[in-house]
Amino acid sequence: MATPIVVTDETFNQAVLKSDQPILVDFWAVWCGPCRMVAPVVDEIAREQEGKLKVVKLDVDENQNTAMAYGVMSIPTLILFKNGQPVERIVGFRPKADMEKKILPHLS
Question: Tens digit of pLDDT for each residue in 17-58?
């Protein structure tokens, strides 16, 4: 069963930019209420899209360099990477259907 893995500033390049699959990065922080609301939805998408999509989590408090490099100004921010490039961005809590509308077209 696919669950999001944790990435850091040090592991981001290898885990995300060099991935051969589309990868959804959840930029979050422990203290962020909307981040806690979006987490179960992200976990569900990870399970349902296993084999087509990898999902990782990056704590912005502990990994500020990567968050700054991708212009993450508010959290939660979800960025979908494909072939090492950001192709979609979702900021704030969104219902699962809204997230899927942005993510699923990139998985075919």
Answer: 999 999 999 999 999 999 999 999 999 999 999 999 999 999
How does the average pLDDT of the chain come out, rounded? 95
List alpha helices for the chain, DSSP H.
12, 33-48, 64-69, 96-103
How many independent structural domains does the chain possess?
1
Establish whether 58 is a catalytic residue: no
- Could you tell me the residue range of the domain that residue 22 belongs to? 5-107
Tokens of 15: 């885990």
| Catalytic entry in 7, 15, 16, 35 | 35
* C-alpha radius of gyration, the chain, whole number: 12
35 is catalytic: yes
> In angstroms, how far is CA 73 from the centroid of its own chain?
15
Q: 0.85 exceeded by the pTM? A: yes
Point out the catalytic residue in the list 16, 23, 32, 78: 32
Tell me, what CATH number does 44's domain have? Answer: 3.40.30.10
